Amino acid sequence: MRGYLLGIFVVPLLKHCICGDVVNFDGDIKDFVVGKSKLFVLTDYRLHQMRVDLFEEKRKDITNATHQYRVNILLPFEDNDTLITCGTFSKGYCEVLDINDITKSIYAESILIGPKQGEKSVAFIAGPSTGRFLLVGKKYEQTNPYPVVQLWNTLQSQIGGILSNIEEGSTPSIQSTAKDVEFVDGFQRVSSLYLFLNSKTGSERKVHVLWMDSSKRKKTEIFKSLQAATIECCDDKARPVLVASTVIPSGNSVIWAGVFSAQDQQDPENTALALYDISSVRGRVKGFCTIGEKCDSESGSNLQPLSVVFKYSSMSSVAAFRSESWIVLFIGTSDGQLIKLVLDEKFTPGCPILLYKSEDERAVLPRMHFDPVDFKHIYVALRKELRRVSVVQCAKHTSLKDCRAALDPLCGWCLNTQRCSTKDECSNTSWVSIPKNSLKTQLLSFQMTENSSRKITLHLVLSLESAGNPAFSCSFTTGSVNLCDGSDLTAVFPNCSCSFSDHILYTGVSEVSATVAIKDQKITETLTLRNCSSITDNTNASYTQCVQCVSSGCHWSSSSSRCDWTHGTGPQLLIQDACKHLLSEIIYREPEILSLEPNKVSFHGRNNVLLRGRNLESVTKIHIQGDLECIPKESPVFDRSSDTLRFHIPPSGTKGTVKVCVVTPDDRCHGNSIITYSSQPSCTGIQPTVSWRSGGRKIDVQGSSMDTVESALFRPSNEVLQTQYSKSSGDVWFHSPPYDGDRLLSLLLKVGNATVDCKNFSYKPDPEFTGFTTLQVANDLQVNIQKKPDALNLRMSEVNVTGLRRDQPYQCVLEKIESNAVICNIKKGSEAITSVDSLIINVGEFTKILEPQSLMKYLYILGALILLIILIAVVGVIVHRKSQRQMNEKMNRQLEMLESNIRSDIRQGFVDLQTEKSDLIDNVGAIPFLDYKHFASKIFFPEAGLLSTVMIRDIGEDSALTTVDEKCEAFAVLIRNKQFLSCFVHALEEQKNFSIKDKCTVASLLTLALHGDLVYLTEVMEDLLQSLMDQSSNANPKLLLRRTESIVEKLLTNWMSICLYGFLRESVGQPLFLLVSALTQQISKGPVDSVTEKALYTLSEDWLLCQAQDFEALKLKVVFAVGTGGEVSEPLEVNALTCDTVQQVKEKILQTFQRKFGFPYTQQFREIEIEYEKEGKFVMLQEVDETSEIRGHVTMLNTLKHYQVGDGACIKVITTRVHAPLRSQNSVKDDVNFSIKYFHMVDPDVETDLSKHPEKKALKFKEMYLTKLLSTKVAVHSFVETLFKSIWGLPNNRAPMAVKYFFDFLDVQAERKKISDPDVLHIWKTNSLPLRFWVNILKNPDFVFSDMVKTPHLDGCLSVIAQAFMDSFSLTEQHLDKHSPTNKLLYAKDIPQYKQEVKSYYKMVKDQPSISSQELKLFLQDESKKHQNEFNESAALRELYKYMLRYFSEVSQKLEQTDAPASLIEDMHKVKELFDNMKRSGWS
Fold first, then answer.
1. Cα 914 to the center of its chain, rounded Å
2. What is the pLDDT of residues 198-246, one digit of tens each?
3. Is 0.70 topped by the overall pTM?
4. Which of 1023, 972, 1091, 1062 lies closest to 1353, judged by CA?
5. Which of 327, 802, 1011, 1061 could form a disulfide with 343 if both were Cys (CB 3.0 to 4.6 A apart)?
């Protein structure tokens, strides 16, 4: 128990620690900004104020059902500690908030400053320090030219006051004549304003930058300083749309980075990231000017990129900062990735580093922000999720070599701490890092020079730098011999040199092992040294020689094409730079790639990919280059010819497209084909799932991404089967192999070098064809083939039959296959066929030859059967006469025994009835209520299928599965239109194929989708109820709400459950739990048959046990084994019966433990065993063992009487987990044939010798035991009355608010319908509350309490109590007699009193003061808020949309019939388009 409580507190704490860098909001993130070391996050409905560690400080609701306010400008104004928010509310609205507490409003005004909803805009603080303005760039839909940039006052002291754009009687602005303008970014740097935008004139798209001088004091002067230019990107293709941008901190120049798009989503290089110098923007662009000027002039030159540093399929955002001479870029993508890219001083990019990748395809928002405190984290928004990602991943590198190989200037090796870290985590002199401008430089490079003293000097350079002078040493060995030492070896960080005799190189190539030690970090490389001057002796220069020269540390002279010793140390040239002039001299035909088969693979890779092309004979290997890989993957080639070759595609850690090219001996790569990595295949089923043993059956495998499957594999036989892919169905198929076995096989799909689990597969014996007959039908010969029934489910396409007549084959065309026959026809050809000599039947690889059956054989069999029947008849007559005499004697004995037993049973029943008393409840402990969401799901979806599981939103659930995306949000808006929702419901209910189950499902889905707005749900329910009352089919008002045959009736059930959950827990829960506990105890006081579950003590005649054995009550002393050393607990007294089975004793022990201590025992009854102390030894008690009594084919379960356990006996409980070797058997109840193979007290259907079993009674009359029903009623009567009174009682003299409100609603409707009969109102109220809600709770307590097992017997007792409950609300008088059912007779005397209490209850509710609409609204809003985020609204909306899609035309027609606005019908079509588009693009 202590451990359990500890887990309750520890788990949430750990979760908070783990998830501290990510926050999920209840709506999509629209924007977020950083100001005053705080984050401000804007969602659909709220504004959140957060610390930099993502802890929420404040929140502000910005919209609700009454005020639909959408913020589209969110701007911190740090100079005066405010946060400016503007948006759309009616026409427009702006509010200035306290930046330290956003719940405090400083100023508000109804004014339109921001754009319309859904359009992009740019807003930032601009202007001189003496008077700041709010600059807003947006698209205006007014007359041409229209203003696109305006300046608004930020202070009341400015001319015109705060939030005014007027100056000296006019409204200065930048105007545009462009057809479409989209602002992307903007900022002020010193005294320069920059705005970046996309414009469209006709079909031409362009990217522009606008520049203005912000040092001017007046708005007019700022706008008159306008300069503009067009930005172009790029050389390889036009990318005329700007997606995102950022400014890079620099010296005097202004370096700006922009993400440009070609608007081609299929292009793997659709977007490009380019750098520009925008320090001096001069000129004008067509379509933009200040007021009073013409917008058709154009001057100046277009801006060209300084460098295009990265290309990718779908970049969506970019941010940057500078670290000394390095530029660090952070790139967000549309498929949810965050990439870091490092540039040196020359804008040379390093290798992209993947910092984060989402599990789904959520796009990164166009704006990202750095942690304002230390720039060590970057904030990234993905739909509803805000994530704080570290800008470095230094800690994952465990050595100096790995740390340097990361090519990250922010990471270096700290010699003091011996780990890869950032500079501020290490002392300056101990930090070793990558030097500037060395992204393309290898960690270790070397050169050789020749001295005049016939010595060679090897110069080794380490591409590292440090502010200190770290301990540094070098060693060079060839074999086990030092190449140099003493004065010939010098080492000064980061260089070292070694001098040695030149005769070492004149003997040939020398392999030298160079080891560099920096403190305790060692780096070892193998250097290949050659005699530089002899590489090109007496031969013509070649590319291969140049490569040997440069890689040996020698100098290649491009002018003389000779290799020589280097002259002094310097940077070592890369091979591709030094030898590129020789590439043109290599003579070979350049290879081309024509196709790749296949070109789509899973991320597991693919074997034996076929490449078709030209001139492939010179190809040595394949390069596979991904967007985020600096070093391409290599794959060797095989089966090569001039036009084809094969290779393996290696696995990939990411999905997406990669480039493939072929490599020739000169290390050049040719061609540029594309391969797409996709998800691994997912197997959903196989058809059929069984084959005959000879094999050859066609097996279809269904699933997704099946085109990436290479073959199938059977386990454990490990037989590999070639598969074929069907483009039409998207499935794969194969022929089953032969297999002679019965065990279940597992089918796996082979993908690359991995396997994917599929389904199980089994083999059955080959089909058995036993013979055939023929029949002439018209001109054809019908062949009837007899077969034995099997589980193969043969298809007609699988069976081939050929008839042979005089060795001439005739095809038999199949007509029908039945379980025991195959019927086919041999069609008439040139001559009629009247018979066949034999048949050849082929089923896959199985072949059977049949001969015709002989008629005489059947005659012999018939004669033998007739003789056998005569013989059996004679024997039967003789046996019958003898048994008749024995039966008469036996009947007399049984009648005497019956009379004695009846007397005894009637006397015992009378004694029980007079002595019965209620002493049942001892201690039930804490009541285990179900939480609200699980209670609601059981009410909404009582069948407890997959739908109920999906609708609950659990802690830790993948946020993508519960996200209300764009399409769901649009549908949610649609159903919040009453006219649409009413038409939707009525249209569905008018369909004949719309079942009652569908109606209940739709009602529950609507309840979940609108759970967050119960006020609106209540209004909809009222409208639908009125419509139901007005229907002509409801001419008899007394039948209203009697059943659940419409959506609104199920909606009413759900509404009552939501509103009464609090009342149920507070007032009714405890009496209900006590009643169920009392029933359980009373039942266990007498015998309970373990097989049929019938009991002696019950309320239901159907579950009354009439064959109870004689039994005695026992008090057992139960001890619990503690540990494994033989220690036991203090004894616990447990009541049991001699007729109890071993399992029943276990259950009573555990029930007594819980009643005694108030909490359950740590183990379930299946996890414990019990032992009986007999003569100082413990004997294990088992349900069935070798001593069990067997009658016929059934076995009697062992009881305490069987083991001779007496009163006061000691029973020890042991735990099977601790004493695993002692476990004797599993529970026999786990046997699927339990009720057939075993019996307890109810006699099996076999002959029993009563002389051997005197405790068994030969005949029972159920009527003798009806007094047991009354005994049970007396025992639990006080609990029943307490429960009933808690339901129709009034706590604090007030009915639950929902009950009072709904009863008043029914009163109003009765007046509206002019119904004066009080019985109608009584029936309406009864049908809406007791029948619709309370009876459901009474019969299903497992809906309210957790871990409650409702046995069929307990269910029968609860049904009797529920019937009495409903009889209390009935207006008709009951006329009972001796033929009436016992469940009616049992409570007949109590019902009149209950009826009076019910009438009093209805009257008291009616006399209460009415509830105002405001009180109800606050109650419903509180219920919605109390249970927000507990249900998966997205899943409910998706399921609800399926019904709209199924009846789309009918709903549309209904809307037209009700004269719905055209905009409403258009909105419904837009929702359908959104769902269709998402489906086509792969979104769920």
1. 61
2. 998 878 899 999 999 999 989 999 999 999 999 999 988 999 999 999 9
3. no
4. 1091
5. 327
